[in-house]
Amino acid sequence: MQKLAAGNWKMNGLAASLAEIEALATAHPTPGCDILICPPATLLSRVSDAALGTSVQTGAQDCHPKDSGAHTGDISAAMVRDAGGAFVIVGHSERRADHGEDDALVRAKAEAAHDAGLIAIVCVGETLEQREAGRTLEVVGGQVAGSLPDDATAEDTVIAYEPVWAIGTGKVPTTDEIALVHADIRARLTARFGADGEGMRIIYGGSVKASNAAEIFAVPNVDGALVGGASLKAADFGGIVDALGAA
Ligand SMILES: O=C[C@H](O)COP(=O)(O)O
Fold first, then answer.
1. Which residue, 72, 109, 111, 234, is most buried by CB atoms nearer than 10 A?
2. What is the pLDDT at residue 57?
3. What positions does UniProt annotate as the active site of this protein (predicted)?
4. Strand locations in 91-188, DSSP E?
């Protein structure tokens, strides 16, 4: 399967950041993996224009489950598509925590993404408290079960495993810990979706940097990364793209 290096700019990026897209595309004209940048919604259209015809694909960080309507401040999956996006992240732990999003809502957003022809990156991951209580597989397994539409396919769905305690902290699980969770997710996907579950990409997120990327990408069932801080600068993200292309 084609691996995925996905950058999530979160609430970062102004017009000056468009230069990073050009730099990334110029440095990686024929990468050995898919490259995705999810800028803030304010920049999606301009980033998509800048990325047109290059190796860089674009997406949004969230979408509303409805197509349109009276939902001030939200954007729909159709709007993401209209702005040039091909992907949308749903259920990121920051949205689950900041906006009280539960699995049912995340699933509805993934369904909306699919209806609009987008690839949904569905995020799951345990808190430190849950890990320390020995509940990692139970929590992540429950999120996978509840957040994925029944008709998800290998082509339209990516799972991002992001331990909440590893996001933006510089703390990363051991490769054995990552392997255990990714293998468990793979088993659940295969049991539920058959061949599609075997082919669905499972990417890791949480303090991925160029310096630790190769080690993480060598772990079985790690099919790429969802990168926050280290995706903001083309020079940093480029190192991760190189590591994934070589994996
Ligand atoms: O969406 C990206 C993740 O939350 C990871 O963020 P980070 O690479 O800054 O730890």
1. 109
2. 98
3. 92, 162
4. 119-124, 157-161
Give the number of the atom of ligand 1 that is nearest the alpha carbon of residue 8. Answer: 1
pLDDT tens digits along 201-210: 999 999 999 9
Q: Which of the following is catalytic: 20, 114, 162, 182?
A: 162
Ligand 1 neighbourhood includes 232 CB (under 6 angstroms): no
Active-site residue flag, 155: no
Per-residue pLDDT of 99-108, as tens digits, reads 999 999 999 9
Low-confidence ranges of the chain (pLDDT < 50): none
pLDDT digits (tens, 9 = 90+) for 130-180: 999 999 999 999 999 999 999 999 999 999 999 999 999 999 999 999 999
Do the annotations mark residue 9 as ligand-binding? Answer: yes
Name the amino acid, one letter, at 188.
R
Is residue 55 classed as helix, strand or coil in its secondary structure? Answer: coil
Distance (angstroms) between ligand 1 centre and the Cα of 70 equals 31
Count of domains forming the chain: 1
Q: pTM value?
A: 0.98
Our answer on whether the CB atom of 36 is closer than 6 Å to any ligand 1 atom is no
Domain boundaries, position 48: 4-246
Rg (CA), the chain: 17
Active site residue 162: yes
Residue 200 belongs to a domain with what CATH number? 3.20.20.70
Distance of CA 100 to the CA centre of its chain: 19
Count Cβ neighbours within 10 Å for each residue of 181-218 and write b for 16 or more, e otherwise: bbebbbebbeeebeebbeebbbbbbbbbbbebbeebbe
pLDDT at 145: 98
- The residue contributing the CA closest to ligand 1 atom 7 is 228
